Amino acid sequence: MLKELRQKRPLVHNITNYVAAQFVANGLLALGASPLMSDAIDEMQDLAKISDALAINIGTLNDRAILCAKEAIKHYKALNKPIVLDPVGCSASALRYNTSLELLESEGVSALRGNAAELGSLVGISCESKGLDSKHSATPIEIVKRAAQKYSVIAVMTGKIDYVSDGKKVLSISGGSEYLTAITGAGCLHAATCASFLSLKKDPLDSMAQLCAFYKQAAFSAQKKC
């Protein structure tokens, strides 16, 4: 898929947090995709026409970001283009949780990507969390499968082992590097990369599994050079 992605060079629109925006843009360029970073509400309709996919990250949430995300989903949904939601920290505050629910209930989101605490929160499974990382008591398979079923999305749960589900099947991907948890923006870039892989219009479950495997391999290769 990576070869095909680099041939297509999909334009990935990111409504992301300002802490990681540059990291995400550079990561997409290195991958072979083209980043587009915009949260100007009035251009969402125009950008939806030219972009291949949309990635929404609520890491630095505010009123402007919420309105922009809703407007963008409306236009990307109308054009049947893939949308990835990264509900950063939705288990930490009512605003993040409620915003994530609103975006998911718009029925335009194609893939939901988060850690165990975030996905668990959205399906009513309590997980112990600290910051944006998490330790979960429910089984990962239960969490990711329920998330996929509840919101009719491909659910991607990242961690030491990644889990991907369409609500029926659950795939697991191991490997990677513990250094990912020490890098600000690693999860944000993961969500944007999810959008780039989905833009190829292949089987979405398989695409997300391949993406997770690729991301973990890239992290492992980078660790070996440290």
Automatic annotation (TrEMBL):
Catalyzes the phosphorylation of the hydroxyl group of 4-methyl-5-beta-hydroxyethylthiazole (THZ). Its EC number is 2.7.1.50. One of its GO terms (biological process) is thiamine biosynthetic process. ATP binds at R113, T158. This is Hydroxyethylthiazole kinase. Signal peptide: none annotated. Substrate binds at M37, G185. Its cofactor is Mg(2+). Belongs to the Thz kinase family. Keywords: ATP-binding, Kinase, Magnesium, Metal-binding, Nucleotide-binding, Thiamine biosynthesis, Transferase. SUPFAM superfamilies: Ribokinase-like. GO terms for molecular function: ATP binding; hydroxyethylthiazole kinase activity; magnesium ion binding. It catalyses: 5-(2-hydroxyethyl)-4-methylthiazole + ATP = 4-methyl-5-(2-phosphooxyethyl)-thiazole + ADP + H(+). Pathway: Cofactor biosynthesis; thiamine diphosphate biosynthesis; 4-methyl-5-(2-phosphoethyl)-thiazole from 5-(2-hydroxyethyl)-4-methylthiazole: step 1/1. Gene3D superfamilies: 3.40.1190.20. It is an enzyme of class 2 (transferase).
